Amino acid sequence: MLNYSLMKPEGILLLEPHGPLTEQDFDGVSQDVDEFLAEHPKLHGVMIQSKDFPGWENWAGFSAHMGFVRDHRHQVEQIALVTDSHLAGMAEFVGRHITHAEVRHFPFTQDAMAMQWLHAA
């Protein structure tokens, strides 16, 4: 399950995965982000906050996630990875190479610092 909210005045998308990601998780977030981007040139930032990386429910969940990244990779300025997952370093590295965003990792307890970073730039 993927909880999300879009802070429209700031142009910041908050993503909180709770359990394996599904294809349906990306339906709603894609629609809301696309509506926002129809009126704004970019998302200022994305904050992904999860203690551990939950993985995907199945191949469809993985494909939907990669499709979301592909469709929005040019329209995101910053990505804050807020996690204690051992995969954070790899996600940061990959994120820098498949998006045009500045990607930064923060420990899970430093969500306020991550949000401050997104607001500051």
What would you note in describing this structure?
The longest helix is centred in the first third of the chain and has 15 residues, at about 25-40. The chain has helices at about 25-40, 60-70, 90-100, 110-120, and strands at about 1-5, 10-15, 45-50, 75-80, 100-105. It has one domain (about 1-120). It contains 4 helices and 5 strands, in the order ββαβαβαβα. The protein is α/β, with parallel strands linked by helices and about 120 residues long. It is globular. Strand 4, helix 3 (about 90-100) and strand 5 (about 100-105) form a beta-alpha-beta unit. Helices cover about 40% and strands about 25% of the residues. Strands 1-2-3-4-5 form a 5-stranded mixed β-sheet, sandwiched between helices.
